[in-house]
Amino acid sequence: MQGILYEESTIWLFLLVTVVMGGWAAWMTARGIALGWRPYWQVVLALLLLGAAVRFIHFALFGGTLLSPHYYVADTIVLLLVGSAGYRATRARQMTTQYRWLYERTGPLTWRERTAQSS
Q: Tens-of-pLDDT digits for all 119 residues of the chain?
């Protein structure tokens, strides 16, 4: 996987910076956008910028390549996956708590319209 997902000598740096630190930031960013009832496309824009910030951390702390489209895309895809899950989980919670008479939760990321039998 070295050379495909990450350029550092060990996967632990990729996991720490991109998955843990960047993933947490992506989740919280997407959660904040969802709590403001803003549309999903704003999550995508914010996470594209966050991908550049994660790339800078790789560059500044660990000597990674700053302007590498390949690794920027790899980092940003991870952030988009985590951020999308955060947005969807927050939106599912919002819809089923604020509109509990209309919607019921069907999973951690989904909800459905409440029917007469499920009331």
A: 666 666 777 889 989 999 999 999 999 999 999 999 999 999 999 999 999 999 999 999 988 889 999 999 999 999 999 999 999 999 999 999 999 999 999 999 999 998 877 55
DSSP helix/strand/coil, 64: coil
Which single residue is written with the structure tokens 């843990």? 20
pTM greater than the 0.90 cutoff = no
Q: How far apart, in Å, are the Cα atoms of 29 and each of 40, 78, 95?
A: 11, 14, 19
> Could you write out the DSSP letters of every residue in 67-111?
S-HHHHHHHHHHHHHHHHHHHHHHHHHHHHHHTTTTEEE-SSS-E
Q: Are 35 and 88 in contact (CB under 8 A)?
A: no
Q: Encoding tokens for residue 37?
A: 């009832």
> Treating both helix axes as pointing N-terminal to C-terminal, what angle do 23-35 and 69-98 enclose, rounded to 10 degrees?
40
The DSSP element (H or E) to which 60 belongs, if any, is: helix 40-62
